[in-house]
Amino acid sequence: MSGGRAPWTRRAAHAALRRLPLLGTLIGLGLAVWLVATNDLASVAAAFGRIGVAGFVGVTLVRALVVIVCGVAWARILDGLSPAPASACLILRFVREGINVLLPVASVGGDVLGARLLTFWGVAGSLAAASVLADLLFQVGTLALFAGLGAFLLSRVEGAEAAALASWTLRTLAAAGCAVAAFFALQRVGIVRLVEDRVTALGRRFVRETETRPEPTQRIQGALDTVWAPRRRGRLAQSFALHALAWLLGTAEVFVVLSCIGVDTVGLSDLLVIEALSQAIKAAAFLVPSGLGVQEGGLVLVCGLFGIDAGTAIALSLARRVPDVVLGLPALLVWQNLEARRAGVRPATPTCDRP
C-alpha cells in the first residue's frame, strides 16, 4: 500500500509548497493591517503627506541605483563566461526585483525566473543557474555583514531595549553565518552534483527502456566549479564588494524619506542601524512576499529605539514601497515582452490545413 500512497504524498507536498507564498501573503497582509489599525492613522497620513513628490522621486532614484549596482555585481560573476552582455544582467536584475516585490512568490522566486530568462541571451541553463546561486550567496553574505555592522553600532546605544536587540541580532547572525558558510561549502564540495545524480537516477525510473535521453554536456555543479575557479577571484571580489555597496546605498532611502518628513534627530550611525536591522528582519521572513507587514513591523521596532514614532516609521515603510511599484511594474512588462518575443521566434506548430 505504501507504493500507492507515495504519489499522493508527493502531490500533497507539492501543493503545500505552492501554497506557502499565498499563506505568507495572507499573514503579512494581516500583520500590516494590524499595525496600521493599532496606530494613529492620522499621524501616518500626516507623515506620509510630508514626503512630497520630491521625496518619492528621490527614493525611487536611489532604489534604481541600488538595483543597477546589483545588476553590475551579477554581470561581474558572468564576465568572461557567457555571451550575454552586461546590459542583460541589468535588465533582468530589475525583472528579478519586480517579481520578488510585486508577485505572490517567495523572495527568491524572481531569482529563479531570472536564471531562466538569462538563457534567452544564449547562456547555458546550468551556467545561468550557477551565476544566480553565486549572486544570492554574495547578496546574503554581505547582508549578514551589514546587519552585523548595524548590531555593533546598536550595541553602543544606551538603553536596555537596544542592548537586548543588539545581542539577539548578533546571536542570530552567528547562526546565519554558519548557514551561509555551509551554503558556500556545499557548492564547492560537489553536493549539487550529488543531488543532480539522484534526480537523474530518479528520472530514469520513469523513462521507458526504449527511450533515450541525452546527458547534459555541462551540469550545474560543473558550472559552479567554473564560476568559483581560482583565476576568477578578482571578478568575484568585485561582485562581493558591489553587493556590499548596494546595502550601504540603501541607507540613503531612509535618509531621503526621514529628511522630507522632518526628522533630523538621527545621525549616520542611526540610519545605518535602521536600514541594516530592518533589512535583516525582512530577509528572515523571506517566505512572506515583499516582506509585507514584516518590513513595517521591523521599522516600527527599530525606529522606536531612536525616538521615531510608529506613525513615522510606517510612513517610511510605505514610502519605500513606492519604488517597488514605480520600478516593478515596468519590469513585469519587460518580462512579459521577453516571453512574448521568445514565443514568437519559435517555429509554428504545423496545422492540418491540407488533407
Major sheet: none
Shape: globular
Count of extended strands:
0
Distance between the termini: 49 Å
How many separate helices? 13
Mean pLDDT: 81
**Quaternary structure classification:** single chain
Count of discrete structural domains: 1
Unreliable spans are 1-8, 198-218, 347-355
Explain what you see.
77% of the residues lie in helices and 0% in strands. The protein has 355 residues and is an all-alpha fold. The longest helix has 38 residues, at 41-78. The protein has one domain (19-206, 216-336). The N and C termini lie far apart (49 Å).
Element layout with pairings:
Elements: H1 2-37, H2 41-78, H3 86-102, H4 109-118, H5 125-155, H6 160-189, H7 191-204, H8 220-227, H9 233-249, H10 251-261, H11 268-284, H12 294-304, H13 310-344
Task: Write a brief structural summary.
This protein is mainly α. The chain has helices spanning 2-37, 41-78, 86-102, 109-118, 125-155, 160-189, 191-204, 220-227, 233-249, 251-261, 268-284, 294-304, 310-344.
List keywords for this structure.
355 residues; mainly alpha
